[in-house]
């Protein structure tokens, strides 16, 4: 499978939930699969996409595969989101000022 860009990998809600689950630490593939109403092969495909996007790494331990979050590639997402964050912060400040004026 060719490398997948981070944005494509994050476009799927199952993959975002997998990443959220890994924030607490490494987890076995079977344990991760148990969180979804999907087949294990379907969850494995999502993990493969995340691996190809370099958002997770796989660690074999005996018969099990443990997945670790690799947050480095998320820096590109943060960089892309910064202008939007500034926009929404400014909008929220304006709303706050308006509400303060209305409440006076």
From TrEMBL:
One annotated GO molecular function is: DNA binding
What SMART domains does the record tag this protein with? Answer: HTH_ARSR
User: What keywords is this UniProt entry annotated with?
Assistant: DNA-binding, Transcription, Transcription regulation
Which Pfam families does the entry mention? Answer: HTH_5 (PF01022)
Which residues belong to any copy of the HTH arsR-type domain? 1-89
| InterPro entries recorded | ArsR-like_HTH, HTH_ArsR_DNA-bd_dom, HTH_MetalResp_TranReg, WH-like_DNA-bd_sf, WH_DNA-bd_sf
Query: What name does UniProt use for this protein?
Result: Transcriptional regulator
Q: Look up and give the organism this protein is from.
A: Kitasatospora aureofaciens
Taxonomically, what lineage is the organism?
Bacteria, Bacillati, Actinomycetota, Actinomycetes, Kitasatosporales
